[in-house]
Design goal:
By secondary structure, this protein is of the alpha/beta class. It is built from 16 helices and 14 strands. Helix content is about 40%, strand content about 10%. The strands form five sheets. It has a five-stranded mixed sheet with strand order 2-8-7-6-5, with helices on both faces. The chain has a three-stranded antiparallel sheet with strand order 9-12-11. Strands 1-10 form a two-stranded parallel ribbon. It is globular and about 60 Å long. Bound molecules: ligand F0G.
Length: about 450
């Protein structure tokens, strides 16, 4: 708003969910019972839940009205046509395939184009994307720019693809690359955006080698906002136009509507190639459903259609990105180390620098995440050696980074909630030297971070 420096939540609250304010003693007991694994907590016992921004957003009154409008016809429902129109308004790919969430789109896509001997380049694969690529037998290669790998280094587009490295890969292995993927924003690299200039350069390389370019578009609107704010040539342009420019550069996309679809469930796969689309639809029918609903109810399709109209609203995006930046700013002012600058959907605390006295194999990220819950009932997510440290042969190796992601659900928490989070992080930061690491006492063969049990050292 002109003349004001305070950026307010551009909405008011109609329906509330009470928070259960636990005591420190209760949280201590709950932690022990959960084996110090925050995934094992009951979410009712979490005060501020920053585990993920996926599917956790609040829907608008118009979205709830759209839910009522939802039509549950098996084939050719009006909800499907509204969904199709809303998606194509932003992403006019010839073929649109609805799925129940993002990874279902990935599973279908890589079942068709992946397989042994194939290689998929991406700026950074999100973990489900990597898992689906590898499950098909193919190799997932991350080619983010060097700046994107240094948490403390500031760069406006740390999600950019290393175009020279992509060129080298294609020179060496063009026949093995069915498509190039770019994740906007780059979640695994700190929620960092990709510039339009970089996307154009990637497109040019794809043209040179005649290889299709696919987007992982989960947080496309946040990425477009960063382009509007940070890329000189696009400063102040309408977000919708930037989104259309992005989609015009690609041949297809995977999407989780649980992020910038502003919905609680849903996703899609889209592409221009009709032969590929036909193969994908055949798999869709096996596992997701008929091509006009995918794995979704008609009401979900309608909620997404309305969400897509709301997510490109500039007052929403200004508030959204500012809320995350505000959290980062206040923590940085006190010297709390994190991935800089803040991402679009999350602040990633750097436990490696924050807890220098805890070695990687004693899980500093886990120690920090547990302490934030103990201190303020805040649930973040370790992204470090607890998540990535176990190798297929069972041995352990430190992860590249030890992060704790504080992901902000969309339109859920207010500024005072964020102030409370700041206070809790600062309390923990002040007594960081007293924190101790953990050991793992029980773990499954794969994806151990979801179910492992820890014991304090
Ligand atoms: N791609 C990206 C970049 C993601 O962040 C996610 C999910 C997916 C694909 C998969 O989508 O969950 O609908 O199947 N990210 C969530 C997170 C889980 O917490 O970051 P999905």
């Amino acid at each position: 708003m002109e003349g004001f420096t305070t950026i307010i939540e551009p909405f008011r609250v109609k329906s509330i969910e009470p928070l259960h304010l636990t005591t420190r003693a209760e949280r201590e007991a709950l932690l022990a019972k959960a084996g110090y694994n925050l995934f094992s907590l009951h979410s009712d016992d979490v005060i501020i839940d920053l585990l993920t921004d996926s599917g956790t957003g609040a829907m608008s009154a118009e979205q709830w009205a759209a839910v009522q409008r939802g039509d549950e016809s098996y084939a050719g429902s009006p909800s499907w046509f509204r969904f199709e129109a809303a998606v194509k308004e932003l992403f006019p790919f010839a073929h649109l395939i609805p799925t129940h969430q993002g990874r279902a789109a990935e599973k279908i896509l890589f079942s068709v184009v992946g397989g042994k001997g194939k290689v998929i380049p991406n700026n950074t694969h999100f973990d489900t994307t990597r898992a689906n690529v590898e499950h098909s037998g193919a190799e997932a290669v991350d080619l983010v720019i060097a700046e994107g790998k240094d948490p403390a280094l500031r760069h406006p587009f740390k999600g950019n693809m290393d175009v020279a490295a992509l060129t080298r890969l294609l020179e060496a292995r063009r026949a093995d690359v069915p498509l190039v993927m770019v994740t906007i924003t780059n979640n695994s690299g700190g929620g960092q955006p990709v510039s339009l200039e970089n996307l154009r350069a990637v497109r040019a390389v794809c043209d040179r080698f005649a290889v299709p370019l696919f987007l992982d578009g989960c947080r496309f609107a946040e990425n477009a906002w960063f382009i509007r704010e940070r890329e000189e040539a696009h400063r102040g342009r309408p977000v919708k136009d930037i989104v259309k420019d992005i989609s015009a550069l690609a041949d297809g996309m995977t999407m989780s509507a649980k992020k910038d679809g502003l919905a609680n469930i849903g996703g899609w796969l889209a592409m221009n190639d009709g032969v590929l689309a036909q193969q994908c639809r055949e798999l869709l029918i096996l596992t997701e459903g008929f091509p006009t609903y995918g794995g979704l109810a008609g009401r979900d399709l309608d909620a997404i259609a309305q969400g897509l109209r709301e997510v490109v609203d500039e007052s929403y995006l200004r508030y959204r990105v500012r809320a995350v930046e505000y959290l980062a700013e206040r923590l940085l002012a006190a010297g709390v180390p994190m991935v800089e600058p803040a991402g679009g959907h999350a602040v990633y605390l750097d436990a490696k620098r924050l807890l220098r006295h805890i070695p990687p194999l004693q899980y500093p990220g886990q120690a920090l995440a547990v302490e934030l819950y103990r201190e303020g009932g805040i649930r973040g997510c370790e992204i470090g050696t607890a998540m990535f440290g176990k190798r297929p042969d069972g041995s352990e190796q430190p992860a590249a980074m030890e992060l704790v992601r504080l992901a902000m659900p969309r339109r859920v928490y207010t500024q005072s909630h964020v102030d409370f989070v700041v206070e809790a992080v600062l309390h923990v930061f002040e007594r960081r030297e007293s924190l101790r690491g953990f050991r793992i006492v029980e773990q499954p063969a794969a994806l151990r971070h979801f179910t492992a049990r820890f014991a304090p050292l």
